[in-house]
Amino acid sequence: MKTLRFFFDPISPYAALAFAHLPQALVGCSYELVHVPVLFAAMLKANGQKGPAEIDGKRQWTFRQVYFLAHQLGVRLRLPAQHPFNPLALLRLCWAAARPGDTPNRLAVEQVMRHVWEGEGADANAPERLAALRAQMTLHQDPDADAVKAALRQATDEALALGVFGVPTVEVDGRLFWGLDALPMLAAYLKDDAWFDGPDWDNAGAARPGVVRG
After folding, report:
1. Cystine design at 108: which of 30, 40, 59, 97 (Cβ 3.0–4.6 Å)?
2. Model-level pTM?
3. Would you give the distance in Å from CA 131 to the centre of its chain?
4. Average pLDDT of 15-44?
């Protein structure tokens, strides 16, 4: 059985769709799934990038595409009132739902994802909604505790050290599978597709850039 680490930030609609679709995408695979909440903004900063929703044309395309993908996958999805938004309170709730030294279970992550992406256009950070979510969840730690904040920072730092640059990303055996559209590739790896035993994985990743912009 393989251990998969699912790196996510609830700010990402692709992470929400991947979370919802992953059990179906990996039917027939033997795996244990570990949910790891991370701060996507820290990854953008580390790589000198803007998020898709911070570029107007890309923002429009992103949400058109995710609505279509949700329709295609049969997943309920509604855009929150503001996007992008600051996801720190939600990330800390995820970590607070885990016991110290552990990671949050699927139910806790599902509650947070539904809060953001099934909120009928509501503000994900509205104080009354956050309070209601907090009351609904089973928390083992104080979301405002230093230990919870440290767990989020440590998870994000570890993801960056692995080479994670976006969410959702699944790590297994040191290999990174980024994005909702990587789930079929991940399933093939878990089913021992012979392609992964050949040189293509390493050779494709070794391609050098011909132009580097400052």
Report:
1. 97
2. 0.96
3. 23
4. 97
